């Protein structure tokens, strides 16, 4: 089995459970901002619509087609107008409240802490994320992840976004290692797996839902639970 010295992790949807934390936040904001008083949708419809809109906007952001500002300013407007509100009816401060509250949530995927405790004495652990710098640091502090990682590289700090190989190369330069010494673990096939492959880095595709994708090159490894990393490392 190949020997690695450094492990690169994506954060959202890989360690930090974005869906669970976002869902809890959105249900809280539904009540806080009295969205039910419009009588046009319930909290479940609000959550599902936001999830649909946000996923597509993040895809555009990762492809460089919209900015961070556009993503943040448009997702709640698109969500609520899509549910029947007029644009002027969208409550002021909703986006800011989401950005303040969601990163403080603490849900992580099963076995996150156990696996990090297992890996930390053996490898250099690092985060490489397209998430926004100030938000990612809050998430990691709130969920007690910060202490496990040596380097935390965000797309904002290096000027590139996954799957651009230059983002991976930026991290490799910072830790002064070769691609062959590293293993990338992430949930997003395009950003994490294809990006790492382009940089010459082996990959672990984290696929907890066991989704069957279109035909594409196989990752070096594929897992559905983080505990399976112990079989690889």
TrEMBL record:
Keywords: Hydrolase. This is Putative hydrolase of the HAD superfamily. PANTHER family: PTHR47478, PYRIMIDINE 5'-NUCLEOTIDASE YJJG (PTHR47478:SF1). The keyword Phosphoprotein does not apply. Gene3D superfamilies: HAD superfamily/HAD-like, Putative phosphatase, domain 2. InterPro entries: HAD-like_sf, HAD-SF_hydro_IA, HAD-SF_hydro_IA_YjjG/PynA, HAD_2, HAD_sf, PGP-like_dom2, Pyrimidine_5'-ntase_YjjG. Pfam families: HAD_2 (PF13419). One of its GO terms (molecular function) is 5'-nucleotidase activity.
